[in-house]
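quick one before i forget lol
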Amino acid sequence: MVSLNHIRYNVPGILLSVNEGGNSVKHYASGFSHVEDKTPMMTGLLFQCGVITRLFTMGILLRLVDKGAFDLDDPLEWVAAQHKQDRGLLNIVVSEYPFLKPVTVRELLGNTSGLPAFDKTIAYNEIFVSRPRKIWQIENYLDVISGVDVRYQRGYEPGVRGYYSNSATNYFIAGLVIEAVSGIKTSENMRNLFQEFRMKNTYYFPYGVMETTLKSRMMHGYLPISHPFASAFERLPQVTYNDNKELRAYDVTGQYTVNGMSNSASVSTTTDLIDWLKQLLNCKVVINNYRQMVTPVAVKKYSEGENNYCFGFYKTRRKDYGEIIWTAGNALGYSVLLAHALNKAITFALVVNVSREYVSLQIDGLVADVLQQLLN
């Protein structure tokens, strides 16, 4: 039996869903989805996936590679010249932004292209804070990372080609490749993928705009008033949770556009995500290029060892728990950890509906406690 306590971790609500072996998914919840209405946290609620969306984008691209449509090591200049089923959009973009020409699809999926993250620029931050509902065009994303006067937020270092550097720009461009090669909008490719793999409660937002019909099914997401992007939501009323006046936040559910699209513009449920990860790792989605998908392309050091980055996810070997395959989504208002522990054959999804800190496999507190309860 798993024990959760949302008050202990200073969060509005927690949802943990666990699948062990061939058993059915078990769900554990604590706290509230909607703190004002006291709606309890429960299974089946939708939440923003953040960069877990990359697993869908990667799956679509590698299935096209499986079919021989192109090679992972083809540069974008070649892909754009050969595949114009998007009416030549990718070709135009690559021509207008020459720094894209030598980048390969492998580098996009592995975050080794050297392309800087558009959402780490001062220009993006300033625009988002003033207009959180702005719908961005292709040129908007690329303009903020190009030119001679690009400024980045404090502490951010742009990537170097050939080395791992987490960048939302990579998967945004990957979405353009999907459309150029398939001739089908990324949003339609996503719908087809979800239907084929029976993810009935997973959705993708074209241009990052949430469908109105889904808002009533959403887990509410909260942003602390101390968050760097909190000023974008100052017009909203402040709410408190856990009967603690120091825990003040804005309810940002549906209050902003999910920029980055193929990188982050999806919502799902814990059950759908668990089922998707299991199918992905059981060679049901990507077949001919499965080994390419799970082979690390880069390594990121952390205090205990290494995170081996593959295509859209990490493989981390822990001394205490063995190898864990995982990814995390940190959208404004939501933190989601999706993981599979190979030694125990346990797949789980952990969701918290507040942006208190970036969730990852290595953080202390809730994640460490969940790992101990599930894997010991």
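fyi The domain at 55-193 is CATH 3.40.710.10 (Beta-lactamase).
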